[in-house]
Amino acid sequence: MVDTIQNKLQDMELVTQHLVQPDDLNYHNNLFGGKMLSWIDEGMAMYVMNKIRYTNIVTMSMDNVVFRSPARAGDIIQIYGKIVKYGKSSVTSRTLAITNNPQTGKMSAVIESDITYVCLGDNGKPTAYFRNFTPST
């Protein structure tokens, strides 16, 4: 499994990390799913804003969100990402969130998902931001 995770991470960048605290856990001592999604959405939105040099974006969709393994107190959640597609007013990023237990070195994929953000104009409506956009390398 670690080889598979390492292969997926090769062309991705570390976006953010979070230490799972006791307050982040549900009744079964697993990380709340909503907390994980919040970390992913916030971290990836900031990553995308930096890459496209535009901040007025909103989350349109998080596709294929499947929780593959739990995270527990003391685990480090590492969220990786990359941009995979540009539309007229939208940008799609791929994210991979993993647990990394610093004591055991065990890494597990938690969520792999595509997230689409839409650029809004001053009027709050989608704007064709990418018509004149050149992605940086």
UniProtKB/TrEMBL annotation:
GO terms for molecular function: long-chain fatty acyl-CoA hydrolase activity. The keyword Hydrolase applies. InterPro entries: Cytosol_ACT, HOTDOG_ACOT, HotDog_dom_sf, Thioestr_dom. One of its GO terms (cellular component) is cytosol. Keywords: Hydrolase. Residues 10-123 form the HotDog ACOT-type domain. GO terms for biological process: acyl-CoA metabolic process; fatty acid catabolic process. It holds the Pfam family 4HBT. Belongs to the acyl coenzyme A hydrolase family. This is Acyl-CoA thioesterase.
